[in-house]
Design a protein that fits this description.
Blueprint (H helix, E strand, L loop, with lengths): L1 H17 L4 H7 L16 E23 L4 E5 L4 E18 L2 E17 L17 E21 L2 E13 L6 E17 L2 E26 L2 E13 L3 E11 L3 E9 L3 E10 L1
Antiparallel strand pairs: 1-2, 1-3, 1-9, 1-12, 3-4, 4-5, 5-6, 6-7, 7-8, 8-9, 8-10, 10-11, 11-12
Length: about 280
């Protein structure tokens, strides 16, 4: 997987370089190899998008370590029944169709979320009678997110298929916490006109390899008092795949609007506004 990630990040760096050139000249020359489209209508080659992505999923703990000097607790392994993750990312995306079937892009933005550990307990911690650990341990976070990706696409008449792969990293505001995500999304759909509106409908699936490494200071309530602790939680997505449906609406030659909903054990909602030139 490391080779795939390096390839995608290289594509993101290429995209960042491309955006420094004259947009008009690029728009006239891209995509390369137009004859490969075999008469299919091509989108305008350059795009800038605003995206909002909300996701909720269960995580599986690889390691959960808690320490608390105030309780005389050295770094100790905690037991967690279930970990839930919720996050909202707001990003800008710059993309270019280098070939009729190949799009590369770079993304940058901000993520805001929280991770909640349910049925939280520390077997090695002895508390006074009647004093219990809270059953939930919530870790809020936020920070910048950046990365890049590639999309392969093909069409025949009004039908199309695509596969998107991207890699992103998030540097969180707690300790040296990070989130790394590698995502692959195959989609198939149909384009057409309905009520004077041009657009497309599609179905697909999303694979996510998500690694969360969160560590830093926090506090827990014991007997009505706030006790400072230090934590380190390493977790991965429990379910790697979910299904999705989506729609895109084309408003004129330049503007596109999209909405996508993911379902199964992981849910997500994505809204997109795209300007092409």
């Amino acid at each position: 997987m490391s080779n795939i990630k390096q390839t995608i990040m290289a594509a993101a760096a290429t995209m960042a370089f491309i955006t420094t050139a004259q947009a008009d000249g690029l728009s006239d020359s891209l995509p390369l190899g137009k004859s490969l489209a075999a008469g299919q209508e091509l989108p305008l080659p350059l795009g800038i998008s605003a995206n909002v992505f909300f996701m909720e999923q269960d995580m599986k703990a690889q390691s959960t370590v808690i320490s608390a000097d105030a309780l005389g607790l050295p770094p100790s392994q905690a037991d967690v029944g279930k970990i839930e993750s919720r996050a909202t990312s707001t990003t800008m995306k710059l993309d270019a169709w280098l070939l009729p079937f190949l799009n590369i892009y770079a993304v940058a933005g901000y993520v805001d979320g929280e991770t909640t550990a349910n049925d939280f307990s520390i077997p090695t911690l002895t508390l006074p009678q009647g004093v219990n650990l809270p059953p939930l341990f919530t870790l809020p976070y936020n920070g910048p997110v950046y990365g890049g990706g590639v999309t392969l696409a093909a069409g025949y008449n009004q039908f199309f298929a695509s596969v998107d792969a991207n890699y992103t990293e998030s540097d969180l505001d707690i300790g040296d916490s990070t989130i790394e995500a590698f995502v692959i999304s195959p989609r198939v759909g149909i384009t057409g006109e309905l009520g004077g509106l041009n657009g497309s409908l599609y179905v697909g699936a999303m694979y996510q390899d998500v690694d969360e490494n969160q560590n830093g200071p926090a506090s827990i309530s014991l007997g009505g008092q706030s006790v400072p602790v230090h934590y380190e939680v390493i977790s991965q997505a429990e379910d790697e795949w979910n299904y999705l449906v989506g729609a895109n609406l084309k408003a004129g030659e330049n503007w596109n609007y999209g909405i996508e909903v993911g379902f199964s054990k992981r849910t997500h909602v994505m809204a997109t506004i795209n300007y092409r030139f």
